[in-house]
Specification:
75% helix; mainly alpha; Ferritin
Length: 196
């Protein structure tokens, strides 16, 4: 359903809930900020690419709106935005892609596609399995836009690069992502590994 090569077990949700959802919400807020920053950076670094310049700004604004929603919910529930931690997931993806990439832009678009797909998968699991039904519904409400972002990044790549290059690189990076996330340690974060 999410075009990923590693399927997160539903037990991940119970493990997150056991640690406390305020940590998850703070991490999620930072993920929304990072997503908006990634989109802005892609526009700034590719100003002559019409499809990127015309498409990404409105999606970046949507990510900032999501940040505001998540931060407000966090505050409402008695939490507050924590300091931003480095992300072993994002760092691992970008480090892993450097080894054999032919195009920085192609990899950035495909990695953004994969990150959005993983987020959509985790939101789906949270919406289905959280005992806290209010929070489950909140994550469920974010799934459609997360899925739209996932598709949008892949469409951008397909519009800018030969189809065979996009397909081959997407398969390579999906496998790399699966190997990475399945071996990351568990944390109450959107992009953590399974409980070990």
């Amino acid at each position: 359903m999410f075009s990923l090569m590693y399927e997160t077990p539903s037990s991940w949700v119970q493990d997150v809930e056991a640690l406390g959802t305020l940590t998850l919400l703070s991490d999620h807020a930072h993920c929304e900020l990072k997503a908006a920053a990634t989109m802005q950076a892609l526009v700034a670094k590719n100003p002559t690419c019409d499809s990127i310049v015309r498409t990404l700004p409105r999606f970046a604004m949507e990510e900032l709106e999501h940040f505001e929603m998540v931060e407000a919910l966090l505050r409402e529930r008695g939490g507050k935005l924590a300091e931003q931690d480095t992300s072993p997931y994002a760092d691992g993806l970008h480090k892993g892609s450097r080894a054999n990439r032919k195009s920085l832009l192609l990899d950035r678009l495909i990695l953004s596609h994969i990150i959005e797909a993983r987020s959509a998968e985790r939101f789906y699991l949270l919406s289905e399995h959280l005992q806290d039904r209010e929070l489950a519904e909140f994550f469920g409400s974010l799934m459609p836009s997360e899925s739209a972002h996932r598709i949008m990044f892949l469409r951008l790549a397909e519009g800018l690069f030969p189809a065979e290059d996009v397909q081959a690189r997407t398969a390579e990076l999906r496998q790399m992502e699966a190997d990475l996330i399945s071996n990351l340690p568990f944390e109450a974060r959107i992009h953590s590994g399974p409980k070990q």
